């Protein structure tokens, strides 16, 4: 984001996050003392402000090769993040961008699925059959193994967004009162992109923050 301090004010009030300085001008967002997200400053101010969902992997190099072999793209090759782990940015065959994370000192979310934290990622795509093949092949065990409890799904772009919206992965954060949270978003300078609707995984609304980054609020 262009204004990290503005992001801290927005998300601090919306979700009750506190913040700790991180690497390279970024800040860690915490809830109950545990890491729940990271806010980073954009290297290029011309690029849009976005939320990026990172998928954990024990072997980032091998998974990167599997993604390109399956028709995806390597956007940013794996690189070290201090002593915390290794990261990469990739895109699926339709261009939806997501991150990869191979943990060292930082395992990932310290808290999720609770109010004020990440709870779901929804891929909006024009090719649901292709998405099933791509993500099902890459993450079959996490999605379909006995006892798996995935927090990832997919839907057609036009279910929520205009047909011209590019494919993307939308991060969802849980709230206890969706209507109240939408009022807070508006008061803090954000806006509602898609008003509340019922999904298979809960009651959802899509919003943007005060810097234009889209995300969803999910009430369960």
From TrEMBL:
<dbReference type="InterPro" id="IPR052164">
    <property type="entry name" value="Anthracycline_SecMetBiosynth"/>
</dbReference>
<dbReference type="InterPro" id="IPR041581">
    <property type="entry name" value="Glyoxalase_6"/>
</dbReference>
<dbReference type="Pfam" id="PF18029">
    <property type="entry name" value="Glyoxalase_6"/>
</dbReference>
<dbReference type="InterPro" id="IPR029068">
    <property type="entry name" value="Glyas_Bleomycin-R_OHBP_Dase"/>
</dbReference>
<dbReference type="InterPro" id="IPR037523">
    <property type="entry name" value="VOC_core"/>
</dbReference>
<protein>
    <submittedName>
        <fullName>VOC family protein</fullName>
    </submittedName>
</protein>
<feature type="domain" description="VOC">
    <location>
        <begin position="1"/>
        <end position="103"/>
    </location>
</feature>
